[in-house]
Each structure stands twice: as C-alpha cells, then as structure tokens.
Design a protein that fits this description.
Strand content: 25-35%
CATH topology of the largest domain: Rossmann fold
Distance between the termini: 34 Å
Radius of gyration: 17 Å
Strand order of the largest sheet: 6-7-8-3-9-10
Number of domains: 2
Shape: globular
Order of helices and strands: EEEHEEEHHHHEHEHEEHH
CATH architecture of the largest domain: 3-Layer(aba) Sandwich
Length: 232
C-alpha cells in the first residue's frame, strides 16, 4: 500500500531524515520507533504531505510526493499531541475530518460509529474541543481522522502526555481498528513497549536513519532494543 524510498526531510540546511525507506502492506500495522528527536514526526509529516521532502512516496501504486496534503486521499493523520480545533465543538471537529467527502448519509453513519467507539465524545458533542481533557482530545483526533474514511492511518506519538491507563486504552482502540476494519497503520512512537504489542513489524529510527528493522517479536527480543528502549 505504502512504499517509501530515499526519503529526505530538511529544515533549512539541517537534514532531519536521511534517505529512509520502508513499506506498509494492505491491512498491516507498522511502527517507526525511536527516541524523542529521532525524526519520527518529520517522517510522518512527509508522508502526510505536511512537510516537503525528497525521494519517492508511492501510495496504492501512485507517486504522491509532489501532491499537496489535501490531494493525498486515503490517508488519515492523527497528529502529535492530539491537536484539535479548540474553538469549535466536538461535532464540528469531526465534520471537518470529512471535508473531502460527498457521501453525506455515510458521513452521518460514520459519525455515529465514532460515537460508538468513543461514547464520551457523543456526551460532549456540543462542547468546545479546547475544554476537553488530554485523553478526550486524543480520542477526538482519532475520530476526526476516521471521518475521512482512510485506508491508512498515520499515527504520530499518540501516547504523548497521556496517563498509563489512557495509553493502554488508546492502543487497544488502534488495534481494534486494524482488526475490525482491516485498516492499515503506520505508527510513529517512542513508547516502544506499547507500540510493539500491536504491530506486525517495526523500524528503529535513530538520528534520522533506520538502523534496525524486523517483526515485532524480533525487535522485542533484540538486545539493542531492550537496552535502549525497553529498559531491560
């Protein structure tokens, strides 16, 4: 589904991602793991089209690196920190997620599906998003991405700033989306323990370069990963 080759992301003269390559297959869940500052967000934003990049990005067989974010249909971004539109109510935040769609009746059904997934959002549908708790904002960011009817979810540091109990719930939700809807996931995450529990494969990103890759089980058993990220 997603094939990335030779991806380079720069900020002025500083290159943050150095010729990275990876892939995500249909229905597959893949993690990009690494410490804070490794380049994970830059990588996700480049795939989403938010950040300019060099290299090749192919999505469903189509080259998209020169396309703006709004034309990269089939992807849904859950940004770092659960960013929402704080001055709009929950319901309008969700509607914004479906701005490219023209199937109004299905959009209404999908909003109800989001409310079924996160009942607290239905309770707060008229509440301004900026007044939600951190966990609720993260739920809203997920729901907004789902409203775009994506084939691939791009998930950036979803555990950031959340309590351990909420982190477990959010990761369980991502796992359900993959299992129940056949949705593909690309998960950038520094919470390595939780990430490797819900993905098929992973890549370790250090200083903008992929230094290790393998199945989730292989990475969990790798001595380098244990020492650097799992505290073992």
């Amino acid at each position: 589904m997603l094939q990335v080759e030779g991806l380079r992301v720069s900020y002025g003269k500083i290159e943050a991602v150095h010729g990275v390559g990876f892939s995500v297959s249909q229905g597959e869940s893949v993690a990009i793991i690494g410490a804070n500052g490794a380049g994970k967000t830059s990588l996700i934003n480049a795939v989403a089209g938010i950040k300019d990049a060099e290299g090749r990005i192919s999505f469903n067989g189509r080259e998209i690196i020169d396309l703006p974010a709004w034309r990269r249909t089939g992807m849904g971004l859950i940004p770092e920190g659960g960013r929402v539109f704080p001055d709009l109510p929950v319901s309008k935040n969700l509607i914004i997620g479906a701005y490219r769609r023209r199937d109004g009746n299905q959009v209404k059904q999908d909003m109800q599906a989001v409310f079924s997934l996160f009942p607290v959002l239905e309770e707060r549908r008229r509440q301004l998003a900026g007044t939600l708790s951190g966990g609720e904002r993260q739920m809203l960011a997920i729901g907004r991405a789902l409203m775009g009817d994506p084939q691939l979810l791009l998930v950036d540091e979803i555990s950031m700033g959340l309590m351990p109990k909420l982190i477990a719930e959010i990761f369980m939700t991502l796992s359900r989306l993959r299992e129940e809807r056949g949705m593909s996931l690309l998960l950038a995450e520094q919470n390595v323990q939780e990430a490797l529990e819900i993905v098929d494969r992973g890549y370790v990103l250090e200083n903008g370069k992929i230094v290790l890759s393998g199945s989730a089980l292989e990475l969990k058993e790798d001595e380098q990963v244990k020492r650097a990220y799992l505290g073992i």
